[in-house]
Amino acid sequence: LGLRAWAATWTDHGRAAFAALAPLADTPAPAPVATLAELLAGAAGPGRSPDGTLALDLLVVLDAPLLDVELAATLLESLADGTRLVLSGDPGQLWSAGPGRFFADLLTAKVCPAVASRTPDFGPIGELVSGVGIGELQPVEAPDKEVVILTAKDSGEAVHRAVQLLTDSIPRALGIPSEQVVLLTPGHGGGAGTRALNAAAKARLNPGPGRFAGFDPGDRVADSPAPGHTRLARVVDGDAAGLHLEYPDGTRRTVAPADAQKLRHGWALTVHQAVGRHWPGAVVVVPDDAAAALSRQWVYTAFGRGERHLSVVHAAGPALPQAVAERPAAPRTTRLRAILAENAAQEY
Questions:
Q1: 8 has which bridge partners?
Q2: Which residues contact 26 (CB under 8 A, 6 or more apart)?
């Protein structure tokens, strides 16, 4: 139609996945897709018009539930009047790290057209996640071991089982290499938080003294430059200049020694850090001390991170099914919903 159209994703993983799904048919040029951060910073995208707005006619934003109200305002201010904005996302997943629920408030206020996908989630993982979305945690048939549930008596056993799945069982039985498997857990602390899981995973996969600010070449790293934003990388090397990281798209960055302490190992992530990306294999660890952190929304998001395989190492007893059945996400609102509804009523 001759429109200047771009897509924006939350993560670099989403950018690569979208580009692979939407190649341009008539030109060898790359697909017009960038991360939202790149788009707003001018590092990628269509550039700016003389008035400072983005030079496009149509913008499709994926993973839109991750937009908080402040970032949404920045995005909207970057669009010229007449630009079409399409927001795409799953309202059942975890929300933004910042204030408000921009996407959910738009849906509730009914101030713009909304289209609900009726495409079912295929396979055992899709069936399990769909059930969680309506408050049901039911067993599913998984003849090819797409879903495996393991129980553990405590956090120590949960860590042992999770790392065994990452380093041995999943690669050997399913042919998914460890590099394509992630460990997911509710938080950083505790007996089976990311710290404990990452320490155990490093000891098995890349043992070393941590001579560069606690890291060694080959370590997986989670780089979180801002709340709600996590980029995964690999340590290439380190020297007096800092820690040299390589990202999945081939770009590199040197983290100054003073900032290296903000990095974490990245074999294990919190589910909040994992939103916006998927892995061929995911191992979700539900520790015995995680009951207060569990909700239907958390389980729904965690179980949906695996594309080919999902293992659940479950040490929380009845807390897991109770969270799915009885604990939907707590309300979190700003005045946005009321303002949208009021403005719509005045317009019509």
A1: 34, 61
A2: none
CA distance 233 to 112: 38
User: What pLDDT was estimated at residue 22?
Assistant: 67
The angle subtended at Cα 295 by Cα 292 and Cα 296, nearest 5°, is 160
Angle between helices 155-164 and 194-205 (to 10 degrees): 40
Q: 317: which 2 tokens?
A: 């007893």
CA 42 from centre of chain: 23
Name the 3-class secondary structure at 268: strand
pTM (2 d.p.): 0.89
The domain defined by 5-119+330-347 folds into: Rossmann fold (3.40.50)
Domain boundaries along the sequence of the chain? 5-119+330-347, 123-209+265-326
pLDDT digits (tens, 9 = 90+) for 113-126: 999 887 777 899 99
pLDDT at position 28 over 70: no
What tokens appear for 288 in the block?
A: 């015995």
| Rg (alpha carbons) of the chain, rounded to whole number | 21
Token pair for 252 = 């590199």
User: Which burial class, exposed, middle or buried, applies to 161 when counting CB atoms under 10 A from its CB (0-12, 13-18, 19+)?
Assistant: buried
Asked if the model's pLDDT at residue 216 lies above 70, the reply is yes
Domain 5-119+330-347 and domain 123-209+265-326, same fold? Reply is yes
Contact 205, 179 (CB under 8 A): no
Residue 347, pLDDT > 80, answer no
Residue 328 DSSP class: P
Q: Are 200 and 298 in contact (CB under 8 A)?
A: no
| Separation between Cα atoms, residue 337 and residue 100, nearest integer Å | 10
Contacts with 14 (C-beta within 8 Å, 6 or more apart), sequence order: 35, 62, 63, 276, 277
CATH number (3.40.190.10, 3.90.226.10, 3.40.720.10, 3.40.50.300) of 123-209+265-326 reads 3.40.50.300
Round to whole Å and give the CA distance between 55 and 107: 27
Spatial contact of 189 and 208, defined as CB atoms under 8 Å apart: no
